[in-house]
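Submission checklist for the structure archive. All mandatory fields must be present; incomplete records are returned to the submitter.

[x] Identifier: Glutathione-regulated potassium-efflux system protein KefB
[x] Organism: Parasponia andersonii
[x] Residue count: 724
[x] Sequence attached
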Amino acid sequence: MSAMTSPGSTISRNFNPLQSSALCDQGGLYVSNKRSGHRARSHIYAAVDVATAVDVINDLGMDTLTLLAVTVIVVPAFKIIRASPILGFFFAGVVLNQFGLIRNLTDVKVLSEWGILFLLFEMGLELSFARLKALAKFAFGLGLTQVMLSTIAFTAFELPPNGAIGTRILEFLFHSRPDLVNIRSVDEAIVIGAALSLSSSAFVLQLLAEKGELPTRFGSATLGVLLLQDIAVVPLLVILPVLESQNLVEESLWPMLAKESLKALGGLGLLSLGGKYLLRRVFEVVAEARSSEAFVALCLLTVAGTSLITQKLGFSDTLGAFLAGALLAETNFRTQIEADIRPFRGLLLGLFFVTTGTSIDMQLLSREWPNVLSLLAGLIVIKTLIITAIGPRVGLSLQESVRIGLLLSQGGEFGFVVFSLANSLGVLPLELNKLLIIVVVLSMALTPALNEAGRRAAEIIDEKFNEEDVLANFLSTPMAAGIDSDVTRPFVAFDLDPSVVKASRKLGFPTLYGDGSRPSVLQSAGISSPKAVMVMYTGKKRTIEAVQRLRVAFPGIPIYARAQDLRHLLDLKKAGATDAILENAETSLQLGSKLLKGLGVMSDDVSFLSQLVRDSMELQAQESLDKSDDREAEIMKPLQVRVADVTDARGSGPSTSSKRNSSSANKTNETDVLRSEGKAVDQAKHESQLQQSVNSELDGVLYCELDKGNGLPIKSSVAEGNQI
């Protein structure tokens, strides 16, 4: 037995797979050493696995050293030339792939995806659920519409099969190969259109983080669109197997799509509720242990766990990482978590950009560059136009819409996922799949340039609109429409200072001499129905009187005015102003808003705080005004008593006719009484009500009232023409 065991051990040490059949022919040895043979094979497989693992580790070790060297070189070099390091990592990936310096590209790509997870996790940490609600308008208003319209536009461009518009254009321009650019079926057109409608979260968010623009409304709208695109991947991945099976029937597609979507959304809701209460408690327990290692491990576990769960639910793993960050945004651990994961995020995200560069097939690119450039230009132009058109309809300015359109005009990393799955299912041919990946990768590489182009385009648009805003802000009296002008919008200014009129005309502003608060002056200038009026007099009383005259002449137009203080602001609103601006207070609020935005506070939160301060100041002014009204009511009491005495004296006559005569005889006495209290009446002119209640049988009753709604006197039929 010992003699037969020795050969067995020898076999295990000197095993050659090519000799296995010869060993099996030796029946006695095989039967008698059955158990020993199993052990030998186990040792063999274990040795092979260990060797493979060692090779993988060695390759990853060399790849890691290469990545670290690239990071050390790229980041400082591109910072010196003031370019985004993203481009450096991308071109480094192209070079490394061409020279074969990355040994284990598959495993490196898997590792690099952690960079995207950490990036989305960090973005989630910056957003509370209240801020996420603010993103809903951009996500569903802008993001959903963009995905749908982009998919429709790209799909229509690729139809009909075997004769698409886009294919004919490419063949006409470049005499390209029909077998490569020609779309064979509607399935291919739908897949390509949907995949190209997505954008790159990794490139865009990293770029916004570098520029410090995430807290702005522009950054928030961009983030909302990207989140919606992540969610849109779910139905797309559900539809792909249906397209592959050629079973695209409405009866089978929509129930399946609804079922998968409800299941995924339900699981996502449960994950949100469970994570909200569970994660906080887990982090508290680990933090109490005061172990930095355990805390970092918990951060990594949170990112990996939520990503895996959302992936099992059918969503993207990046959405899970973002959700985990949002769940922890309300906790006290946010700052420490950000500090712990930032080094991981930076290195792994750089690795992702490197692997993105390795995805380019240089031979195919050199052969099909006309098609690549044409498809790339079409992708950027179509997505930019769609987002620019939608943006103003969801509350964005034209400048913001143009910037977002250019920034999100590239393809996205989820396009790789869709194209790869479509290729494996046979929906897309292999060479077309490679061509589309090249287009997407190049568009991603252009993201920094597209962002800069969008910024400059926004500045050009802003300069044009700023000229008009300067004109509007320059007005010292109303602005109105309806006169010939060299500017895009027909504005005209009025001023009573000849030097101001002369200087403004030299600057190109259409300014006329006159009191623009008088309707007759406006009519003389040919302005019968202005669109809006701005009153910017420096005198308080003059401003109030101008607003009153304009409100009577133009009841339906918006009137804006400049207020000197809070009391003046309330008086202007009573006089009929649509709104009034406190010049000193608004300057302070603008400075405070800039400070908060610079500190990273989101634009929506800054606007909310500014409005809260305005409302608080207006409330304080109203309370102060009410107290003043109470004091003035005490001053008015002697007047009311004396008027009541006069009324009683008039009511003591025997007959109605004598009362009327007495009324006529005592009219002079009443006037004297009012004149004797004239000072008190003047103090209450704009903010109090005076009402004299008398016997209903008397004629010629004095009834005067100041309406608190607009400050204009409401006259009685008898006292018409009088004004207090």
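[x] Structure attached
Curator remark: The radius of gyration is 39 Å. Residues 1-35, 44-48, 466-488, 653-724 have pLDDT under 50 and may be disordered.
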